[in-house]
Every structure is written in structure tokens, then in C-alpha cells.
Specification:
heterodimer; A: MetI-like fold; 13 helices; flat; B: 271 residues; mainly alpha; MetI-like fold; 2 domains; globular
């Protein structure tokens, strides 16, 4: 076989590999993008033009966004308040979860508190029970506590749901810190809180970012608990408001998709910003083989 | 007690408080409310309940296995180093990164029989009316499964990709030298090193899928005629009908399905 023929065969093989990869890649791209593109298409289409079946609107417009921002529809009367609620609740859940789970992970992993293993197992158990099955008991409980319709009920419920995974991820990360640090601190007569503040927290920053983001996104994205625990139009989150659009047959779909897009952007932005932390945290945390 | 032990106790107390007030109490109270045998007789007499059990089993077995098989396949695809595959992997993660409410509602509009984009295209191409997608229980449940797969496929692909990347490259090089085919490499190198990760992932995915409320509730709402409910949505249906005892009974009945899987995961992780 001449060198030339060999080279040609090599390129032929390479071309067929590329073709096979494209044959997988193109369907994957379409599958992923179609529902999202459909949402974007609705949000930039004038009313009644979105359903024409065109791939790009004849006259793209940002009018829907102006409509939403000015709350010019019955369904959007409380748009800004609801956006604020989502933000407030997500940040509160992120901060509270971070505080509670960092403290617990430090006590279990570094201070070796008695019964720490049991606490960890209880937390893990809660993590594995799907939250949907705890929703009705939680709803009844919040009623007993007199917290229904108060945003505290959603914040506390979400902290309860988010903490176990956070404690577990933080404990895994914390167990990897060298013990010499603790011994040196003890020998220097440091208190537990000094060790926590000066040694533990600075070394744990990447995990803290991952865990805080996880709790924040979990709360922002939550739908089931939000619609069970909150009901007043001015106190619900944006997620519940989106679900409420479905109540009527003549819903303004283009406005719903616009609001949905606005609602989906912050978590996507946060995800891509902290992707590095999220991915390492998730792969280390979610499944340990 | 030394001051370090004291601090350990103080720092773990906030979580313990949350656990007692928002886990132990609700679970205990729920079990107490679900204590009447009549609740279960009423539940078992409801034909919707058995339909729901069947739906849940189909959903968990079919959707999870299909999803994990595709994720395993795609994790091999994303292993290739090409600029466009790297770019695609960033796009691919979007369904996982954005909340499911707007995207599932977007799918719901696409499937609208009168003016949804899918039936509009079917009409343009064939001149015939497309099916009434969400009005047929089998179709509607299948589409819920697709919505579920759409949402969680990226996450599991990522997990399995991490598993594949942990396999030393020398093993594949040695196999290439010996003239092994791609399929042989998969059977003798990839699968043996991934099997345990794959099994754990499948079990965990089954647990999470049992709790997937959004994919069913937001796409079909349990309809038509309450025929596409799964256990995660059935409790809410009874709650809406003001039948709290049935709602809690349906959750208690789900426990034998969930607890063995949870037990398996706990054992696996505490190793």
C-alpha cells in the first residue's frame, strides 16, 4: 500500500468518526434547546404571532418584557413583589442553611461532638427521603405552628430540606483538612471558636460557596412547598405565580413565557458563574462510589 | 466537659432543633393522622390509587433506566476532545441549571393540540391534525417521563462522565495495542470500573424520581381524569380534595417502596 493511500484511508476514518460524533451531537443539541428556544421565541413574539409556527418572529419585540415590568396584566399585578419574595426567600435560605450546616459540620468533623455520627446519619436519611413525601406533613405542621402564609414557613421548610446535603458535603470536605492544624491550635491555647474562625472557615471557602449556592438555588426553584405554604398573591414567590397562570384557559402565554424566562435567568447565571464549585461539589457529594 | 466539647454541642444544636421541629414532629404527626385503618380501606377502594401505583412503577422503572442508559452513552460522547463538544457540554447542562417550572410549561404549550408548535408543524407538513397529546393517559404519562428525562439527564451524564474520567488512560492504550475493539474496551475496561457508580446512581435516581412532583404535575396536572398521577402528586390531589387522611395514607403506603432504596444508599455511603 502506498503512503498516499494510507494517508487517504486515515483521513477517511477521521471523517467518519467526526460524522458519527455529529450524528450524536446534533440531536443532543436540538433535544436540549427546543423547549428553551420555544420559551425565548414566545417572549420576543408579539401576542398572537408566537403560535404561527415560524422559527423566528417576523417582527421580534421586547414589548412583552415591558408589559411584565410594568405589571400590565391581571396575572402580573404583583410581579415585582413576587420577584422580591423569591429573592428574599432564596437569600435567607442560603444564609441560614450555610450558618446551620457549617456549624454542625464543624462540630461533627473537627470537634468530634458525642453522637455526631448519629446526627450525620439522621441528616443523610432526611436527605434521601424525597421532599415531595414530606410536603403534606410539613403543611399540616406549619398549620399547627401558626406559620402558614408567613414566608418564614417556606424559609424554615427549605432550610430543613437543604441542610442535610450541605452538612454532608461540608463534613466530607472538612474531614480532609489536616489534623495538625487543630493540634497546633489547641497547643497554642486557641479556643474552639478561634479555630473555627481563623483556620476552618478560610480553608473551607470553596465548599461553602458550593453549599450556599446549592441552598439558594433550591429555594429559588422550589414550587411544591411554595404553593402549599404561601397563598396570598403579594407574598407568594415567582414560581407560584407562574403556576397560577395555568388556572385559566385564556392565559397570556407570551407573558407567562417572558416571566418564566426572567425567572430562569438568575439561577442559570449563578450556575455558570459557580460551575467550577458546583460540579466538584456535586460529583464529590452526590454519588460516592 | 472541656470547653471544646461544650462548643461542639452548642454548634450542633441549631441543626438538631430544626430536625426535631421540622422533621421529627411532622413525620410523627403525619403518622398519627394516618393511624386509622379506615383511611387505608378508603384509599384501596379508590381506583385512582391503583392506577397511580402502576404509573409510579412504570415511571420509575422505564424513565430511570432509559435515562441512565442514555447518560452512560452520552458520557462516552462528552469524553471526546473537540471544541464543539466542549461548547455543547455547556449548553447541554442548561435543563439542569434552569428551574423546571418555565421549561416544563414551555413543553406544555408546545403540546397544546390547537395552536401548540408541534401540532402546527404536523398540520403544515401533512395537512392533518396532530394528536391531542395530553388528553391520552398513555401519551401524557410518556411525555411526563420525557420531561423528567430532559430535566435530569445532564446531571447524571455529568456524574458518569466524572466516573469515566477517573479510569486511567493507560488501560485503554494497552487495550488498543492488543487490538481491542471499542466494544471490547467498554466491556472489559469501562463497565467493570463504572458498574458500582452506575448502580449507586441508578438507585439514587430512582429515589429522586419517586419524588419528582414537577414533571407530572406541571405537564399533565395528573389528568386526563386523574389517570396520570404518581405517588408524589397523589398526596397533593387528596389534600386539594380536603381528604388529609387519604393524603397521608398514600404517603405511608409509599414508604415500603422508598425505604429499601434509602437503606441501600445509607449502607453504601456509610461504608
Amino acid at each position: 500500500m502506498s503512503a498516499n493511500a494510507k494517508r487517504r484511508r486515515l483521513t477517511w476514518k477521521m471523517v467518519s468518526t467526526e460524522a458519527k460524533l455529529l450524528l450524536i451531537g446534533i440531536p443532543v443539541f436540538l433535544w436540549t434547546m427546543i423547549p428553551i428556544y420555544h420559551m425565548v421565541l414566545f417572549s420576543i413574539s408579539p401576542r398572537n404571532a408566537a403560535t404561527s409556527g415560524r422559527l423566528w418572529p417576523k417582527e421580534p419585540t421586547l414589548g412583552n418584557f415591558a408589559f411584565v415590568f410594568q405589571q400590565k396584566h391581571f396575572y402580573l399585578d404583583h410581579f415585582w413583589a413576587q420577584l422580591g419574595n423569591s429573592l428574599l426567600i432564596a437569600i435567607s435560605v442560603g444564609a441560614l442553611t450555610l450558618a446551620v450546616s457549617t456549624a454542625a459540620a464543624f462540630a461533627i468533623s473537627r470537634l468530634k461532638v458525642r453522637g455526631g455520627r448519629t446526627v450525620m446519619n439522621l441528616a443523610l436519611f432526611t436527605y434521601f427521603i424525597p421532599a415531595a413525601f414530606l410536603a403534606v406533613p410539613m403543611y399540616k405542621t406549619m398549620g399547627n405552628y401558626g406559620l402558614l402564609n408567613s414566608q418564614w414557613s417556606l424559609i424554615l421548610a427549605m432550610v430543613t430540606i437543604a441542610s442535610p446535603y450541605c452538612i454532608w458535603v461540608l463534613k466530607q470536605a472538612s474531614d480532609k483538612l489536616p489534623w495538625e492544624l487543630d493540634e497546633a491550635a489547641r497547643m497554642d491555647g486557641a479556643t474552639a471558636m478561634q479555630l473555627f474562625r481563623l483556620v476552618y472557615l478560610p480553608l473551607m471557602v470553596p465548599s461553602l460557596v458550593a453549599v450556599g449556592t446549592y441552598a439558594l438555588l433550591l429555594a429559588w426553584n422550589e414550587y411544591l412547598y411554595a404553593f402549599l405554604l404561601l397563598s396570598k398573591d403579594s407574598s407568594v414567590t415567582l414560581a407560584v405565580a407562574l403556576g397560577n397562570f395555568l388556572a385559566a384557559d385564556d392565559s397570556p402565554w407570551e407573558l407567562l413565557m417572558t416571566t418564566g424566562l426572567i425567572y430562569a435567568l438568575p439561577p442559570a447565571a449563578i450556575y455558570y458563574t459557580f460551575k467550577r464549585y458546583m460540579v466538584s461539589g456535586l460529583t464529590a457529594g452526590a454519588v460516592k462510589s | 466537659m472541656t470547653s471544646w466539647e461544650k462548643w461542639g454541642l452548642i454548634l450542633v444544636i441549631p441543626y438538631l432543633l430544626i430536625f426535631v421541629v421540622f422533621v421529627i414532629y411532622p413525620v410523627g404527626y403525619g403518622l398519627w393522622l394516618a393511624r386509622h385503618p379506615e383511611s387505608y380501606t378508603k384509599l384501596f377502594a379508590d381506583p385512582i390509587f391503583f392506577r397511580t401505583l402502576l404509573n409510579t412503577l412504570v415511571f420509575v422503572v422505564v424513565a430511570v433506566n432509559l435515562k441512565m442508559a442514555i447518560a452512560l452513552f452520552l458520557s462516552g460522547f462528552f469524553l471526546h476532545t473537540r471544541w464543539w463538544i466542549k461548547a455543547l457540554s455547556l449548553v447541554f447542562i442548561l435543563p439542569w441549571a434552569v428551574p423546571s417550572i418555565p421549561t416544563i410549561l414551555s413543553m406544555r404549550f408546545m403540546l397544546n393540540p390547537e395552536w401548540g408548535v408541534i401540532n402546527t408543524l404536523i398540520f403544515k407538513l401533512t395537512g392533518m391534525d396532530g394528536p391531542n397529546w395530553l388528553n391520552d393517559p398513555t401519551l401524557a404519562l410518556s411525555l411526563s417521563m420525557l420531561a423528567h428525562i430532559w430535566k435530569s439527564l445532564p446531571f447524571w451524564t455529568l456524574i458518569l462522565l466524572a466516573g469515566r474520567m477517573a479510569i486511567p488512560g493507560e488501560q485503554y492504550e494497552a487495550a488498543s495495542v492488543d487490538g481491542a475493539s471499542n466494544w471490547q474496551k467498554f466491556c472489559f475496561i469501562t463497565w467493570p470500573s463504572m458498574r458500582s457508580l452506575f448502580l449507586t446512581s441508578t438507585i439514587l435516581s430512582m429515589i429522586w424520581t419517586l419524588g419528582d412532583f414537577n414533571s407530572v404535575y406541571l405537564l399533565t396536572g395528573g389528568g386526563p381524569a386523574d389517570l396520570t398521577h404518581v405517588l408524589a402528586t397523589l398526596g397533593i390531589r387528596y389534600l386539594r380534595l380536603d381528604q388529609v387522611d387519604l393524603s397521608l395514607a398514600s404517603i405511608v403506603v409509599a414508604l415500603p417502596l422508598i425505604l429499601p432504596l434509602v437503606y441501600y444508599m445509607m449502607k453504601r455511603l456509610s461504608k
